[in-house]
Amino acid sequence: MRVGFVEWPEGLEPYGPQWGEITNRLADARLDMLITNELPFGPWIADRRPFDREVAQACVDIHAEGLDALRGIGIPAIVSSRPVWAKDRLLNQAVAIEGGRIRAIHTKQYIPEEPGFYEASWFEPGEDCFKPADVAGLRLGVMLCTDAMFNEHARSYGRQGTALIAILRAAGMSTENWLTAGRMAALVSGSYVVSSNRYGCSGGGTEFGGTGFAFGPGGTPLAVTDPANPLLVIDVDPDVAARQQSEYPCYVPERGI
Fold first, then answer.
1. Pair 182, 148: CB distance under 8 Å
2. Is residue 250 part of a domain?
3. Contact by Cβ (8 Å): 162, 191
4. Which end of the chain is more exposed for a tag (fewer CB within 10 A), N or C?
5. Is 36 within 8 Å of 7 (Cβ atoms)?
6. Closest Cα partner for 148 from 104, 105, 213, 195?
7. CA 199, CA 210: separation in Å to the nearest integer?
8. Which residues belong to any copy of the CN hydrolase domain (predicted)?
């Protein structure tokens, strides 16, 4: 399966010349599946606080428009994320887009609160989390950005037979930390790990580091995006992941603490 991953710009709008360039590049890649970055459309709202309902609604609206645009580009399966209302704040919800249908497959659980990333002021964790989903015949798991720093969930995904873990990020400039987290996720799960991120600077001054990446089962580095190569593609073979999941360290039994 040809799986694409990206670095997409801060403030991306699902129309206009920039979106046209992105969709042309995607068409040329002939993907079976696309993994986008976290909350890929519109400005990054968590670079400020307090919570503002109008700003939150604008984020919801542009993602509804953006996901509709993604449905129209002809890729058989897409994994992305969107904000959805949950009482007085938002959920950050990962979705699969397949056959014109959008379905929720995960909600972000680990939510930071610090300069540039005041996410806990805007988002709360949902209940649907860390359950593998079957998308285009591929068993996959999703982590939304900081979720990937809690490696026990990658191991759990692997023990549930996931061939691919998708890490959707809106991450800053400390790219080495994310590469380490991605490689460890692949090592302990035996799965392929693919991650997309945004790049650029938000209106509030938050800088995003780009650097989408892919690791093979067992942690083998496969590819890393850069400004000259904002879309890359790997081939995901579920049989390779299944074999790795019977190898060290995946086979080692878990112990209670």
1. yes
2. no
3. yes
4. C
5. no
6. 195
7. 4
8. 1-238
Which strand (E) or helix (H) includes residue 143?
strand 138-144
Torsion from C-alpha of 255, 245, 217, 181, nearest 10 degrees: -10
Residue 257 confidence (pLDDT) above 90: no
Rounded to the nearest angstrom, the gap between the alpha carbon of residue 131 and the centroid of all alpha carbons in its chain is: 15
Tens digit of each residue's pLDDT (9 = 90 or more) over 93-152: 999 999 989 999 999 999 999 999 999 999 999 988 999 999 999 999 999 999 999 999
Residue 170 resides in a domain: yes
Using CA atoms, how far apart are residues 6 and 26, in angstroms rounded to an integer?
10
Residue 164 lies in a domain: yes
pTM: 0.96
3-state secondary structure of 153: helix
* Length reported for the chain: 257
How far apart, in whole angstroms, are the C-alpha atoms of residue 207 and residue 203? 10
Instruction: Tell me the residue range of the domain where 182 lies.
Output: 2-244
> How many other CB atoms sit within 10 Å of the CB of residue 115?
11
Please give the torsion angle defined by the CA atoms of residues 75, 102, 93 and 213, in that order, rounded to the nearest 10 degrees: -10
Query: How is residue 47 annotated by DSSP?
Result: G
Give the alpha-carbon dihedral of 186, 157, 241, 27, to 10 degrees: -80
Give the pairing of strands 231-235 and 2-9.
antiparallel
pLDDT at 87: 84
User: Is 200 a member of any domain?
Assistant: yes
Count of structural domains, the chain:
1
Please tell me whether residue 194 adopts helix, strand or coil conformation.
strand
d(CA 246, CA 184): 17
Three-state DSSP class for 27?
Answer: helix
